[in-house]
Structure formats: C-alpha cells, structure tokens
C-alpha cells in the first residue's frame, strides 16, 4: 500500500489525518450540516466545515516542526 499522506498510525480509523479521511469528514459534515438559508449563513457553514479539518493540519505541522513525525 502506498501512503497517501502523513498519518498518525491510525490508518483506517475514523478521524485519521490522511487526506482521504479529511475529505470524507468534510463531505460527511457537509451532507449532515443543518440546512441554512442566506449567503452569509452558507459562507459561515463552508468555513465551519473547513475549520474542523484545519485543527488536524495544525497539529500535524506542530509535530513535524518538533521532529515527532519524520518525513522523507
């Protein structure tokens, strides 16, 4: 199996940080987010969904900077 990105050792478990899991999480949140009306509400919905995945990316960057995750 070829790695798709930097993982945390929990490949296949919900909430992993590989790109495919982040995409699935965003798609799931988009499909199950409460229906909103109006332009401002929909823009806020979009950024709230993206914010859920941003936390994972920030943690990965911190780990990479401190040398916890060793890349290529």
Automatic annotation (TrEMBL):
Residues 2-55 form the Choloylglycine hydrolase/NAAA C-terminal domain. Keywords: Hydrolase. GO terms for molecular function: hydrolase activity. Transmembrane segments: none annotated. The keyword Hydrolase applies. It holds the Pfam family CBAH. InterPro entries: CBAH/NAAA_C, Ntn_hydrolases_N. This is Linear amide C-N hydrolases, choloylglycine hydrolase family.
């Amino acid at each position: 199996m070829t790695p798709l990105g930097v993982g945390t050792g929990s490949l296949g478990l919900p909430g992993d940080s590989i790109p495919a899991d982040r995409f699935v999480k965003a798609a799931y949140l988009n499909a199950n987010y409460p229906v909103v009306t109006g332009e401002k509400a929909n823009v806020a919905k979009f950024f709230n969904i993206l914010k859920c995945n941003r936390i994972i990316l920030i943690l990965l960057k911190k780990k990479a900077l401190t040398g916890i995750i060793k890349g290529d």
